[in-house]
């Protein structure tokens, strides 16, 4: 059983649960609708490609607001008020590097170790919904950390940021996966709920409305090449 198996066995099960691997010569594109109270608040067109490439184009009410990306080395940010992208540094660069390494939780955790992440078995813990699963903490040298919960099938069923000092006025958020889909053999979440970890209150819903595989174009992840 996963509750008592070794961390290596758990990582193998998680890798198997992903189904077909996303290849470096492909880009997985998904359109994500974030809803609050059944109403759309923003739309994200997300592109990811291994080992750690990421781009988000964010729109509100159908109007583009900003884009951010990590091209494997540098991070970029561009919004509606500027014609040229800004290269991110410091904390912003580290955040995009971290998001790229996560690869939207479609990457084997073993691969994340190769990218410099540290994995720590946290044993059995409870999610915001009160369910118990095996928990693994992922951290980077930049001190970003996240705890993920893995079910008996090796699927990541929930995850939350590990904040050193959570602000009193800001809830600690957890994303719980409600439904999975499969596109050309790639297993991915298609519906999730964002919860307040302390109260269990629903903050938002995340719905994937469209997915596709695109040919790899490296310049997609470098906003300065747009």
Write a structural description.
There is one protein chain. The protein is mostly beta strands and 226 residues long. The chain has one domain: Lipoprotein localisation LolA/LolB/LppX (outer membrane lipoprotein receptor (LolB), chain A, Clam), CATH 2.50.20. It is 13% helix and 49% strand. It has a 13-stranded antiparallel β-sheet.
Short description:
Helices cover 13% and strands 49% of the residues.
Q: Which features would summarize this protein structure in a list?
A:
single chain, 226 residues, mainly beta, outer membrane lipoprotein receptor (LolB), chain A, 13-stranded antiparallel beta sheet
Secondary structure elements and their pairing?
Layout lengths: L6 H11 L8 E11 L2 E11 L3 E8 L2 E8 L4 E5 L6 E3 L1 H13 L6 H6 L3 E9 L5 E8 L5 E6 L5 E6 L11 E11 L2 E11 L5 E14 L11
Antiparallel strand pairs: 1-2, 1-13, 2-3, 3-4, 4-5, 5-6, 7-8, 8-9, 9-10, 10-11, 11-12, 12-13
Question: Quick one: CATH class?
Answer: Mainly Beta
Summed up, the domain count is 1
Beta percentage is over 45%
Q: Would you tell me the overall average pLDDT?
A: 89
Q: Measure the end-to-end span.
A: 49 Å
| Helix share bin | 10-25%
Spans where pLDDT lies below 50 across 5 or more residues:
none
Report the biggest beta sheet as strand number plus sense, adding barrel if it closes.
13 strands, antiparallel
Class of secondary structure makeup: mainly beta
Please compute the radius of gyration using only Cα atoms: 17 Å
State the fourth-level CATH superfamily.
Lipoprotein localisation LolA/LolB/LppX
SS elements, strand count: 13
CATH arch. level architecture: Clam
Q: Which series of helices and strands comes N to C? A: HEEEEEEHHEEEEEEE
Counted by DSSP, the helix tally is 3
CATH domain fold name:
outer membrane lipoprotein receptor (LolB), chain A
The strand order across the widest sheet is 6-5-4-3-2-1-13-12-11-10-9-8-7
């Amino acid at each position: 059983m996963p509750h008592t198996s070794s961390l290596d066995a758990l990582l193998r099960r998680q890798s198997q649960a992903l189904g077909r691997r996303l290849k470096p010569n492909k880009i997985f594109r998904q359109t994500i609708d974030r809803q609050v109270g059944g109403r759309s608040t923003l739309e994200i067109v997300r592109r990811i490609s291994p080992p750690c490439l990421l781009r988000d184009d964010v729109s509100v009410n159908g109007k583009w607001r900003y884009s951010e990306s990590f091209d494997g080395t540098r991070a970029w940010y561009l919004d509606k008020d500027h014609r040229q992208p800004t290269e991110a540094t410091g904390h912003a660069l580290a955040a995009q590097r971290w998001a790229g390494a996560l690869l939207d939780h479609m990457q084997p955790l073993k691969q994340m170790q190769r990218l410099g992440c540290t994995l720590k078995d946290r044993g059995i813990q409870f999610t915001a919904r009160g369910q118990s699963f095996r928990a693994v903490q992922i951290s980077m040298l930049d001190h970003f950390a996240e705890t993920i919960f893995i079910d008996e099938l090796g699927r990541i069923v929930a995850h939350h940021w590990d904040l050193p000092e959570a602000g009193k006025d800001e809830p600690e958020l957890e994303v719980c996966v409600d439904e999975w889909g499969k596109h050309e053999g790639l297993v991915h979440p298609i519906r999730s709920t964002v919860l307040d970890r302390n109260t269990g209150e629903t903050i938002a819903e995340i719905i994937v409305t469209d997915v596709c595989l695109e040919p790899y174009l490296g310049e997609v992840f470098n906003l300065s090449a747009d």
